[in-house]
Amino acid sequence: MCGIVGIIGREPVASRLIEALKRLEYRGYDSAGVATLEEGHLARRRAEGKLRNLEARLNEQPLHGFVGIGHTRWATHGRPTENNAHPHATERLAVVHNGIIENFRELRDELTGRGHRFVSETDTEVVAHLVTDEMDKGKAPIAAVAAALPRLKGAFALAFVFNGAPDILIAARQGAPLAIGYGEGEMFLGSDALALAPFTDTITYLEDGDWAILSREGVEFRDAEGLVVERAKQKTQASAFLVDKGNHRHFMAKEIHEQPEVVGRTLAHYLDMSSGCVRLPFEMPFDAASLSRVTISACGTAYYAGLIGKYWIERFGRIPVEIDFASEFRYREAPLDAAGLMIVVSQSGETADTLASLRYAKSQGQKVLSVVNVPTSTIARESDAVALTLAGPEIGVASTKAFTCQLSVLACLAIAIGRARGVLSAEREQELVSQLIGVPGLMAEAIKREASIEQISYGLSKAKDVLYLGRGTSFPLALEGALKLKEISYIHAEGYAAGELKHGPIALIDESMPVIVIAPHDAVIEKTVSNMQEVAARGGRIILIGDDRTAAESAIDFHGHISMPPMPPDFAPIVYAVPAQMLAYHTAVAMGKDVDQPRNLAKSVTVE
Ligand code: G6P
């Protein structure tokens, strides 16, 4: 979740380290820091809070070294103070780290016993001292790192720079992503290819257990046994331009507005518009005739996309689907049979728990299909088949366009599974595909409701608690709507299955509680209307996201109504996601919150 970078070059590196860190800030923004070698001697600048604070520090006290490392932090061990900010250093070296060193306490006790003095609350500092300890025994940097790495337990991507050694940088990877970039007489390292895109389009991804010795002329790769190994170079498509906000105030607003386009692009990748059929651009990694069940594993917003996918795969594919949070699934020792299919869903393709689910499924002999947005990610690379979402880079920490693209892909997969298993007729497929083709246009219509959504959001921004209700595929969307609101406005919000209301949450309803009901005109609309009546009878303030027909038929005096265009119900969640996202966005903006970088969160969660 933290981001790390390193450059060994022929000119000062500090400004380029900052440029790369800006592209990694989505991974965390609790603090930032850089270290370079100034005439052979280590010098550091660190600052609490966002990267701009570090930039201000560097303006006052510039660094001029030609070799350096940088870090942007999402705090795990130790508060987000300057003292806990990376790089962590000893008199011999400085190190930056993404991940968690699980055995840091025992290592720290051992090293303290040998006279090392620790000054931060982090797990990372132990790495600095462990390597220093080896150097104190007389080892050179490479030998010292080789001796220290096998002692570290947990997940890490590390980069080291050494006092008095201006000609090397050392990097290591175990369970957290790390890319090496190639330049002309200079070399780079970074947590992802996006960070390195301004400097190079040629990279190598380290494999788990690998470490690398970078010089200006190139790189030598070693595996976990310390043997020199070859690792393939590849060209990246990450854009060198830092994606900008266009005419929008925030990335989140831009990404919400981009959805008709990126969902259209994603659907076009999976649909044959002329024949009205689904055409997957990859081989399904299972035998349709013997497919026994589908298991879905994901985290956060991607999990809610998976939950909606479960409804669709069961409905159109007539196959049982089990879904779990990846953090639960990975330790639950679920029995998986080889005829089953595992689907993992992840925007970044790097989420540690989701990756662990994938590896568990593979260890049980299952094939894994991933729905990912980053084609070069670890999850994409380790999957048997990859269904790409073509959302483009998503910068806002609260996921929006990746979610609706994930839904679009899952809808196509559900249809493809149904057809492959012979349980979905060609006519029904054509009907569903024509509905999907209409989705981007309906999303554009939904976006036009922004002014009324903004007005409703103003009232919502005064609430302390908000309830979201929905039935069927609107239930996972209610969960996602509540998640969006809490992550960026910090208002407590809960999503509930509308039918469960009477089993507890109805006790919360009073005049001060906004209840947002997601109610497309679907097969269960009458049931949802009854649940709205139950809320209205208790004085609850209902905000309806639904069409005019539902509003008229229910004859409820709504506190607010986001009037949605009429649409066939099957894929309504893709369209109804738009007002749910906009409600959260405008509420947070009305409250003056940092929408793109909400407190305590990060976009890519590579720790457990
Ligand atoms: C973090 C992000 C969420 C995201 C989740 C899963 O919590 O803040 O927006 O949904 O991770 O991320 P992934 O990259 O696997 O989709």
Q: How would you summarize the topology of this molecule?
A:
Blueprint (H helix, E strand, L loop, with lengths): L2 E6 L5 H9 L8 E8 L2 E8 L2 H10 L6 E7 L14 E2 L3 E9 L2 H10 L11 H12 L4 H8 L5 E9 L2 E10 L4 E4 L4 E4 L2 H4 L5 E4 L5 E4 L4 E4 L5 E2 L4 E2 L15 H7 L1 H12 E2 L4 E2 L15 E5 L1 H18 L3 E5 H4 L11 E6 L5 H12 L3 E6 L5 H5 L2 E4 L12 H20 L5 H22 L2 H11 L4 E6 L3 H16 L2 E6 L16 E5 L6 H13 L3 E6 L1 H7 L5 E4 L8 H19 L18
Parallel strand pairs: 18-19, 18-20, 20-21, 21-22, 23-24, 23-25, 25-26, 26-27
Antiparallel strand pairs: 1-4, 1-10, 2-3, 2-4, 5-6, 6-7, 7-8, 8-12, 9-10, 9-11, 11-15, 12-13, 13-14, 16-17
Helix pairs in contact: 3-4, 4-5, 8-13, 8-14, 9-13, 9-16, 13-14, 13-19, 14-19, 15-19, 16-19
The chain binds 6-O-phosphono-alpha-D-glucopyranose.
6-O-phosphono-alpha-D-glucopyranose (G6P) binds next to helix 9.
